Amino acid sequence: MTRVAVAGAAGKMGATVCEAVEEADGLELSGRADPALGTELSEVLPNADVVVDFTVPDTALANVKECLEAGVHTVVGTTGFDLDAARAAAEGSGANCFVAPNFAIGAVLLMEVSQTIAKHMPECEIVELHHDKKLDAPSGTAKRTQELIDAAGGNVHQPIHSVRLPGLVAHQEVIFGGVGQTLALRHDSIDRRSFMPGVVLACRKVADLPDRFTVGLEKLL
Predict the structure, then answer these.
(1) CB 48 within 8 Å of CB 4
(2) What residue ranges define each of the domains in the chain, with the CATH number in brackets?
(3) What is the pLDDT of residue 168?
(4) Mind telling me the catalytic residues?
(5) I need a labelling partner for 102 at 20 to 30 A (CA). Which of 181, 187, 191, 195 fits?
(6) CA 11 – CA 134 distance, rounded (Å)
(7) Which residues of 76-105 are buried (b: 16+ CB within 10 A; e: fewer)?
């Protein structure tokens, strides 16, 4: 049984993660850390094998470092923080850190297909849309999509377009253009539960990853 604690447990994503962990075979919810609950991360670390972090960009890196120093693996869904610093912390530790810009399987498939299309229709634009409480822009998903498209030989036009409105959850469109034609891919997460299979998968696999620092759910599929 893998003991999982959740940082940011009082938030919408954190609360959904807690429910998913409680329902998952082989996982045990061992702690909920959140200032709103009056519980510090340090209080839940002794009883955790894995910490899932869905907090805010300003605290995510410190949380990752605290977990790694305690020898606790981390699964991070927070975006907008310094990944290079997190990588350095993980590589000098005895635990693994897994970061996913997006835990929805459909979003990962969109990124994978985008790489194939970019080899034939390199010119494209990215439009990402999220709820109005999301703090970072462009989203981590959009940045990761650009990295993958660029690596495949594509050309993502700048800037990435970010929309923040009430009523949205998490959405992304990649539009490719060629002579006399366009091709659009779109993924919509209309419920936060769409991310939970990916989160649960990461909790189960993070301890066995070959590298101390890993980015992208596609590495687990």
Answers:
(1) yes
(2) 2-99+193-220 (3.40.50.720), 105-190 (3.30.360.10)
(3) 96
(4) 130, 134
(5) 181
(6) 12
(7) bbbbbbebeebbebbeebebbbbbbbbbbb
One DSSP character per residue, the chain reads: -EEEEEETTTSHHHHHHHHHHHHSTTEEEEEEEBGGGTB-HHHHGGG-SEEEE-S-HHHHHHHHHHHHHTT-EEEE---SS-HHHHHHHHHTSSS-EEE-S---HHHHHHHHHHHHHHTT--EEEEEEEE-TT---SS-HHHHHHHHHHHHTT-EE-SSPEEEE-TT--EEEEEEEEETTEEEEEEEEE-SGGGGHHHHHHHHHHGGG-SSSEEE-GGGG-
How confident is the model over 113-153, as pLDDT tens digits? Answer: 999 999 999 999 999 999 999 989 999 999 999 999 999 99
Q: Please give the Cα distance from 37 to 28 (Å, whole number).
A: 19
Strands 170-178, 123-130: pairing kind: antiparallel
Who's near 215: CB < 8 A, 6+ residues apart? 83, 98, 99, 100, 101, 144
pLDDT for position 173 = 98
Query: Which residues of the chain have a pLDDT value below 50?
Result: none
